[in-house]
Design brief:
222 residues; 75% helix; mainly alpha; 9 helices; globular
Length: 222
Amino acid sequence: MSISWFLFETVGTIAFAVSGSMVGLAKRMDIFGVAVLSILTAVGGGILRDLLMGITPPLAFRTTSGLLLPIGTALVVSVLYTALKVSRKEKKYLMFMYNISDTVGLAAFTVTGALMGLGADNHPYILPITLGMSTGIGGGILRDLMAQRVPVVLRMDVYASASLAGGLALCAVWHSGYTVAASWVGFSVVMLLRLGAIYFGWQLYHPRPLRSSRKKSKSCDE
């Protein structure tokens, strides 16, 4: 694996561990529950990626850092959380931190998944893009299911689609010969799309049935 892969893998692990810990704290879980959500969010997508690639046991179980890093992150987040007096303003700040960490994790793991797919022969686009999206959204789905929430990928339109776009951009730049820049392009595309969606409220097209003219006229008469 390249240095950039390890960089994005580490950044993604920490970022998703933070988001998982914050969900656990918001659900008023004890420290064990917070650590479990942190681990699931941080390594869940990577485990799915490795299983799809036929890598057994998954990379998360081959080194101590695979589990110790999200556990340590959960402890740090929990300690910092207990030191806060959460006001309305600080709640907005916590939500901002959650969105940022979740976005960084999505972008970083999209890159690591796509890079692993590009390492396989004769799979220029479909496999890398699929692995990138699976790695990016897998941990968040496990986190939300364990926290008894509707998975964020089903609630936010520009989420999996942002990962899809980032993986496509990464592959396009990679096959153009700019292998070093490809990772940063893919990462940047996911970040820009997600942050734009958060700030501007971007949504995908929602098909809606047309209201009949009779209903419209009836409502006007009433």
